[in-house]
User: What shape does this take?
Amino acid sequence: MTQVHAAHSLNPATRGIHHLALNTEDMQATTDFYVRVVGMPLVHAMKVPAGLGTGPGNRGNPPYECLRHYFFDMGNDSLLAFFEMPRGAEPQARRDAIAGIQHCAFCVTPDGLQALMQRLHANNVEFQGPIDILPGLQSIYFFDPNGIRLEACMQPEAGSQPGVVHSVLQDKATAMQELSTLGADAAWLARITANLA
Assistant: This one.
């Protein structure tokens, strides 16, 4: 992959992840894993008020009443959240299913990766890696207690100042090689790659 160090020209409409909400059926095990093993502090623990699961106030919540909904600090002012589903009420998701979560990748520094690997070892959590995944990027992969595949990704050369977008940013010609395999028209390709140098 060609790395481009110049900024892309468009400003994204969003500022990153506010929270990523996932599901568990064991909030205690999930909380212990993310706080003690992964190192994400718990910042909010609540039960969703009655009437928001099946009542008229439901705004997209899971269809169960009074679920636990906990938030963990992922760093860089973003949150990881979990809803606790009633045990046995929902099937285990397949990570390769359409609309499933294939994996969740967290940005870490080299020191952060070493500390995480030590905590994983100490808690007998198996992981793969470090693996070179793209030029300048290394990752480890492991599973949480819910079977969610997690990735910790770092840029060795960036040290404590990783640049997530710039670590994967391509030039227009390189991106066009892949995008043109979609069979899209030239006007669409031009719109989609307008931000690339």
